[in-house]
Amino acid sequence: MEEQKIIQAGKIASEIKKWIRPQIKKGMLLIEIAELIENKINELGGKPAFPVNLSINEIAAHYTPAHNDESTAHGLIKVDFGVQIDGFISDNAFSLDLENSELNKNLIETSKKALEKAQEKIKLNSTTSEIGKTIEEEVSKNNFNPIVNLSGHEIGEYDLHAGKTIPNFDDKKNEMIEAGLYAIEPFVTNGSGRVHDGKPSGIYALIGDRNPRSPIARQILKYIGAEYETLPFCSRWLVKEFGAKALFALRELEQNGNLYQYAQLIESNKGIVAQTENTVLIKENGEKIITTD
Ligand code: CO
């Protein structure tokens, strides 16, 4: 683990959080918000670790604007973005209430508190379930539900979801926290506490290298491998690089087994969802570094 690169990725993420937060207003195009963040990551010397997710209300995760997206910011919006430097990642999210809603504010405050408590709890030789239990207790205390089938995760080099899972409830698995990099992300809802798959998201990851038939699909596959390696990317980025023909290539690559396309994740009871996320580095000597704050 290259500690310096992890810390630098976190610094960039922190700076962007502070910078973007006051700019997000109700009615702003989501594509504008996504591009502001993604461009700023590049400007500060990082790369997006995945497309900026801007999921609203009952969409818990995996909404990124399409190239021609006309949706605008409203409701409870979750801004989930990642910064990577040579594959060393910082994964972050914050939520904003754009409606001046008491419910939205309470959901957001609860997910922030749950994250704070989880950050205190995580340490060498603590267990993943203890952290989940802490999150669950904080959320239940506020009469909301944690989303049980979304979780924090260990992060590896060029690997956003590696190894261990940090649950948002006491899953009784009691895996030991070892030295490593961990994203903690309490998702809080007034709904059922589960998500199901919604529409295709336009977010993809590379999963196979079987040669596709068409030259454009082959060209784009090569580009994806070089540019994103195994990290998620989106159709919007490829349309920008190759034009609309990228959309046909993506379909072919998905059918050919080269790409996995993520689904949008929807709260099963149409509850509103808030999320807060930070990345924490746990070192061999027990030191804990909250890389984004
Ligand atoms: Co994450």
Describe the fold and architecture.
The strands form four sheets. A five-stranded antiparallel beta sheet has the order 7-6-8-14-15. It has helices spanning 3-20, 30-43, 102-121, 128-141, 215-228, 235-242, 245-255, and strands at 47-56, 59-61, 76-85, 88-97, 145-146, 152-156, 159-166, 180-184, 187-189, 195-206, 233-234, 259-267, 273-275, 278-282, 288-290. The protein is globular, with a radius of gyration of 18 Å. The longest helix is centred in the middle third of the chain and has 20 residues, at 102-121. By secondary structure, it is of the alpha+beta class. The two termini are 20 Å apart. Strand 14 (278-282) and strand 15 (288-290) form a beta hairpin. The mean pLDDT is 97. Residues 91, 153, 183, 185, 277 line the site of cobalt (II) ion.
The whole-number mean of residue pLDDT values reads 97
In what order do the strands lie side by side in the largest sheet? 7-6-8-14-15
Q: Characterize the overall form.
A: globular
Q: Report the β-strand fraction as a percent range.
A: 25-35%
Largest sheet: 5 strands, antiparallel
Q: What is the count of structural domains?
A: 2
CATH architecture term of the largest domain: Alpha-Beta Complex
Query: How many H/I helical runs?
Result: 7
Q: What class, by secondary structure content?
A: alpha+beta
Q: Tell me the span between the first and last alpha carbons.
A: 20 Å
The CATH superfamily of the largest domain is: Creatinase/methionine aminopeptidase superfamily
Unreliable sequence segments: none
How many β-strand runs?
15
State the helical fraction. Answer: 25-40%
Q: What molecules are bound to this protein?
A: cobalt (II) ion
Order of helices and strands: HHEEEEHHEEEEEEHEHHEEEE
Radius of gyration: 18 Å
**For the record, what CATH class of the largest domain applies?**
Alpha Beta
CATH topology of the largest domain: Creatine Amidinohydrolase
